User: Fold these one by one.
Assistant:
Number 1:
Amino acid sequence: MSEEYKWFLKDAVVDTGMCTLCGACAAVCPYEIIEFDENGPKLKEECYRNGEGACKDVCQRVMTDAARISMNVFNFKSLPPTSIGQYQKIVSARATAPSIAENGQDGGAVTALLGYCFDNGLIDGAVTTAGFTKPDSCIITSKEELMDTQGAKYSAVPVMAALRQSKDELKNVAMVGVPCQTYGTRRTQFFTGLNVHPMEVGMNGEKADIPNIPYTIGLFCMENFNYEKLSEHMKSIGIDLDKIKKYAIRLDVMIVTTDDGEIEISLKDIADCVWDGCRICRDAVSKVADISAGHVGSSTGWTTLIARNDKGLELLEAAEKAGYIETVDDVDISMIEDFAAIKMRKFNKELAKRLDDGKKVNFYWVRDYPGVRPEANGTNFVKIKTNSGIVQHDYIARVAELAEKYGDGSLELTSRKSVEIQGIKGENVDSLMADVYGSGLKTIGMGYANACPGMDYCPEGLVTTKDLANELTMQFAQKLTPHKMKIGVAGCPNSCVRAESNDIGIVGQLRPKIDTEKCTGCGRCSELCKLNAISVISGKAVIDRDLCINCGWCVRGCPHEAAVEDERGYSLWIGGNDARRPTNGVLLKAFCTKEEIPALIDKVGKTFVKYRTKPGKERLGNIIALVGEGQFISEVLKE
């Protein structure tokens, strides 16, 4: 019996039957000590970090984190989850080259797309699965090798592990895999942008040098099989594994094409061969891929292609324009939705069974939804958005109803004016979120605009705040959240929301001036000024601009209407935070209009990203201090 080493994933994922064999753990291990057998991954020697390093960080069965991954995949335009995921275009496609169309799976569209990428220098490698007799992950480096890997294999294979086989000269490598492998790819690809920490470096400087992944093509998948069990079953019914040329699953049968013809196998007969981790998978259509591909929804001999983002759409259209594929719009989307629904029903049945049997379940999917986060005791909370603190009574009543129905009945009002439903069990998250969206409620993560009541509610407010905060939330909540950039909007220099302590602080300003013809020198303004910025000299009020903070108290309190408004607007502060390494905000612009603010915030964000080197470890104020206030501000304000 081989020695077993301490490993977080063994206890939390592998031994609990959650592992999908995606291979991400092996791809990122700097020591290359993870290997695979018929039971899944295992350590072949002791881990320097006791099995709690990058492998744990990228495992999509610990947490998919799809809500934040989707911000990157969809260029900060991600939408709440749906049954078949977010997309821009769905078509039926097939390769125009007869050799590819005839030998490929459902018309060979995926092979044709990769062929286009190779021919046009978009990739110099692709990771996929090869071999029917004994499927295995591989990395191909030419269009010619591509032809040898056509067709679905339906065996669980650690595809991502092949990334470690990539040669130094391979700079851009496409990934082709089933849904779990696309999540593993995305967690690896965007790891450093998920507000975590840099990728693991070994004790002697070892690194997992993974090439750039320009395209991720995800395959439709209902389930995959344990190769050892499946091959034994096939041999038991007389199938010669060396003669297998193609697999296909249609409805409830697997069709195995061999040199001697086609053999149909009922999926019921091979149900025991399904890989354990596949039984509790919930994505049938690779929702976070650039392009998803499968036979469902299209006619025989055609592939359904779902271009999910700009990159995927551009590749699909370019390949068609260049003559590599032909497409038609005749896709039955309802069939894809039914296909996805079947997988969810299987997932829910398996989840219920595991919970009834008392088995440990990792609720890896809860962060597929924006605003849902795990709690310390194993339950979850969901953050419900308000209009910067303002809600209608019926809105908050619905929140309360859901808290009683799905949570522990408690609500928390957060410092950034959202409402959190507490104590939600993992098995209830899907139902809760269906009710949240069905009730017209909205969820939100961190990093959005917080505002005081402003002039609409507060007598001391100089400007409106709630509308501005809500507008900025819609424009920047997703875009700035990965960098944890918080916005505070104060209606006056009292700054009850501590705007200057936010990454972006916006403060209402009223610049006063004195009408000397009306001023009697009574001194009322001087008495009201809390900064001693007004003095009466030679019978007239005089404002010291170095002391004045533009609060407008003198204007409100002057009995002769001699202190009047000169201009009204906002001051903009940047770089404040009260986090681990607190920083004080600095004044970016003393006066600006409401219309100027979005463009200035956008410039601040871009300048921050330009100089940031350690995602997850640097807030805006830290970068301003590193670059220098003058340099940073000049770059932001430069036309």
Number 2:
Amino acid sequence: MGVRALRLFLFLLAGLGTGSGLGLGYLVYAYTRNLPDLSQFERLRLTATSTLYARDGTLLAQIASVEEGRAIHRSLVRLSEVSPAAVAAIVFSEDRRFFQHYGLDPVRLLGALWAILQGDLQGGSTITTQVIKNTLLRELAQVRTLERKVKEWALALELERRYTKKEILEMYLNVVPWGGNAVGIKGAAEAYFGKDPAALSLAEGLYLASLIPAPNARYQDLKGVRERMRRLLDEMVAEGWVSREVAEASWREPLVPKGWQARYDGEGNLLEARLVDPEARILRQVDFRMASHFVLEVRRFLEERFGKEKVYGEGGLRVYTTLDPGMQQAAERAAREARLPEGADLALVGLDPETGEVLALVGGVRRENDQYNRATRALRNPGSAVKPFVYATALEAGWTQATLVPDRPLEFPDPSQPGGVWRPKNFSGRFLSREITLRYALDLSLNLPAVYTANAIGIQRVAEKLAQAGFVVRYPTLAIAIGGASITPVNLAAAYAAFVNGGYRVTPLYVKRVEDAEGRVLYEAYPQRRRLFSPQVAYQGWDLLKGYIYDLGEKGLAKGARIPGRVVGGKTGTTNEARDLWFAGVTRGLSAVVWVGRDDNQPLRMGGREPSSSVVNPPIWRAFVAEALRGRPAGDFSPPPGLVKARVDLLTGRPSPQGVEMWFPEGQVPFPEEAPSQMEEPHGTTP
């Protein structure tokens, strides 16, 4: 080749090099002129799973955030909250020169450029570029193009300039996808091993690291992952990351990820492996640890309080609830062991009568994954469980427990009834045909005296009091005196609390405090109490409830609710055809309700017969309360000023040394020489 030809060749070669450089430069300019803003990382750090805690700090449940319509299980962690062994395993596997390079690993970058020249657009990945790929360039993550690579490299350099290595590594551990719906190291640790990332071993860290390039496929190949773990351990020893002793101890660890059954020999060799439940690693949108119906109620509160975008689109909430784990276990055990009528379900709720904090809640026991919460959603007729409020309203009007009320046939005009007349009946169909004390009327749970009382003091007054207590009163007729209103179990427990807390109807509370991911308090609850009765009336109501449990001895309708060493009070309730069975009871430290019924509101049958709430409900209540309050203060409540105690005959209302002790307002204690007051009976009074 002549000199002239050589010069021409070199000129062309230089031109090609310059053109290639200019072309490459133009591509870099074109791909990087509209890069995403790195400030978006601040928002990305907030997208996380919300965590619910019981009152003692026990993990109660987790609510996954939602990204692109899919539930994502990611709980953000600090680098200090991940075991150093797991961090080392992941860094060594994914980017062992991470702490030496500036976002781009020269060794890997040269390999990537060579691959690109060969037409293969992969390689060159570092932890920094993976942070970019899984956040700002997520829409390009599954597309292998030169544009994505150039953008990753450019943004990686800027990320390294703005953040420290530890901050970038922390970002990586929180955003890397780990298969299924687990994102981030905390989600992965829980999904695959059911533990906190701080507790991960070196072997578990290596397993998780080995999944990263193709987590869904590699999860199904435990044998192949073990082979990669062996290579990584040998390389870590060769490069001085761990000692041979540590490596061999890690290899011998019998690693069994969730969903797998595996067997190893003493040297760490995998003898047998079988994937038995591929869904075991999938974390549900709501991951319950206990009290599923309580958790669903908390979720509903969060949605209403903060909105779904905050709960699912941002997440990261730390929710401190009122639930007492010990009491919840007692409630669930009592519910499981309950003897129920055919086809019936139950609701059981216990709350603090002073604050309204819900301590235990069971919303149903018949079906798994049942989201219908009967404790908070079953609006049913309470039957005779409403009577204490009718009589307390009468006490408020100046009556006493010894006031006489008739138990004989009554009738009232009612166009909805046959013949235009309503003739209420007692549950047994019989009556005493005489006047008895208000207290004895409650002890026997008689309907006629309750209807008479409501009529005498004014049905409108009774209806207003029931509404204040939390009952739904659609029509203020006399029928509400024997169960014609409606209420949910949790609201009945909140209403009964008034008899032992000085007269306040409390608002049920499920959440005490909510914090965001940074620990800022977004919500803090304070007890909400509404005056329902005076302390004197409330205490007389408590006295009535105690009488229902103890006055009649072994003939008492709620003798099954008695707890040795503890003073309790309460009332049963049975609606027509036994469609609803209730027991509401109070004692020191707890107001609790048990409801039993069918979701389709059909009549209940037990052994072919119509069951009674006095047989079904009190034993369930007793089993729950006795265990829930074991070791806690018992004893009676102290009366407020203005009340005095006297022994009175249950039937006649006259003072009697052999009578029952009752509390009366000062100046209203019956005197021996006085004849019992006679109340005029209604004659066709319009309700």
Number 3:
Amino acid sequence: MLAELGHFALLLIVVTGFGQAVLFSPLWLRSSIRATLQGRPTVLAATGPNGITPEFNVTGPVSAPLPFDSQISRPGHYLVLPAGLLLMAIVAQAALLHAFIVSDFSLPIVANVSHSSTPLLFRIGAAFTPDGGAMILWLLAASLVNVVLAMQLFGAGQSTYGQDDDRTLFYNAMSVLGLLVGVLGLATLIDADPFLRVAVAPLDGRGMNPQSQDVLRVLREPFLYLGLAGLMVIYALTLSGLLGCKFDRRIAETLRFWVIASWVALGAAIAINAYRSYSQQAWGNWWYWDTAENSLLLPWLLTTALVHCRAVLEKTETLKGWTAFLGLSALAVGWFGVYLTRSDLFGPLNETLMKPNDSIALLVGFCAIFAGSYYLFWRRGDELGEPRPFELLSRESSMFINSVMLALIAAVVLIGTIYPLVLRWLDGENITVGGPFYVEVLVPIVVPLLFLMGFAPTLRWRQDEMWMIGRRMKLAAILSIIIVLFVSIRFIDLSPAPLIGIGLAGWILTASLSDLWARLWRQPDHGESKYRNLQLLGPRYLSMTLAHIGLAVMLAGGAASSVWEEQVVVSARAGQSIQAGPYNLQYEGVALLAGENYATRQATFILYRHALPVTELFPEIRYYPIRGVETREAGIWHGRDGDLHVSIGDRGDDGGRVVSVRFLPMMPWVWAGMILMLTGGTISILTRIFLRFQKNGVSAS
């Protein structure tokens, strides 16, 4: 019965989404109210000079159209439709989760990806894995941001409610977002309705993919779809600005929270997925440049570019057209990435041709929505001119160049992702675009991007001078050169690629720290106290600096671990010791154990450092009988010297157990850098929320 309730809620989501698109349309509101005014008496309210609100009647035909401010009053129940959408999305998601929890195999979606022996946590996670389950989660996230956007727009509109342009922007944004929710709901019903039943239910399910039976996989999905839902809000606000021919600082201020929040959510999904792959496959063996990875990377790259361009638009009201293009394209690549991962286009060609409904509705909705939005962007392009030009040596110019390079990186990744698909459809040839292609093409773009990143925070708005730039960057240049010389002399045989990575990491780190130092200790007008100077820098500057430092730390850790990595592969017997870096591993043997839905061969290693025991590691080889799949789980130790990976294989020809040990120095820097980047974005979000509750603003510095 709950499944039928969820199906009914999904139908209501479609109807309510399209209803919101119509009811919040200012064109519809204008026409309906004008018809009312011309057809029957209407009571309008006007506020007198003494604050008294008299009532008066307007009858008969209207000789001149009333201003938009007097035609519609602020809707007292503007949250009814968004709240109804959220409630129905919660009901649909709860019904689907209940079906997985109780193992209702009359639903094909449950029977295909779950089993009665699957642990409860992974049964819940399995609800997000198939196409229909993922789309329900996306609809839930979209309904949630729909409510938040309504509260943000109409709550902020209380102080500026008399401005027609603001109200038109708000209504258009809500209308566009309702349209997106309706299209997604309709695509879910057509392509992968999760609530369809079969007449005869199987006795049990096929079981969950063992690779998906991971806590990190369960955590990744909410972050991914919250990020995509945030991109929907960015798209709605951008399209609303284009519809009203008003893309200015007001929109940039409204976009601030959503751009940073989407960037953080997508970045968190990438970080979780990276560590998940790292823990399962070991460093260097995760799925580089896979379709699923690229579909997550593409919107994050464009959102990163949008973070910088939005700041320029808010500060100087320039880069209007480029910012609008990024606002539309971020959701476009995210939507297209979802389509690629949910469809089977990268499967065997004959099997793909045999599938009649391969996410066709999702693709049709994508084509219709973004064809219309890009056409509108083309028509409005001439009206988004720059009011005041800026010089080449300026912060606007550097941030624009950075965003263009990020967009070029996204374009290369997109081409590498879809090129095998296009070639296969043209001549039937199957090829794989791997790491060498991306490295060879992206290095000439990434290196200048990282080099310019050190300059951007120190440049002045509008115009700067070369000699002043050199003076400000002198300390950073000296320190980065010292780092490169030290590493190259200490490791004379080091290849150029990691040396360039370490040098760029040192450049970004020293540039960020030297700029922070200068702002704290070389600005006497900031106040007598250095703590006061730190306060006056503002949370946005601090979050930006923290994100840049995090990127430098991550880059340094990745380059160093690739340079100083040690790998040992031996055929070990019980009691044998294995040396890797400063650690010594003693192999104790393998035990056969039973898990909840798998059987495992679990090895035991005692880890020593300088002859002192540190911990025990338990790498495994798991066998899932339901799917007949075998997986390998590595044992990992995160030490202050680096990460130690231990994995086991089958028995060798000599009867010993094949053991692979990797020591990755400075590998914790990679994860620390990711955490610092996400922390910087989180600080900006929390500060924005706090200031909103305090009814206060913050400067655009």
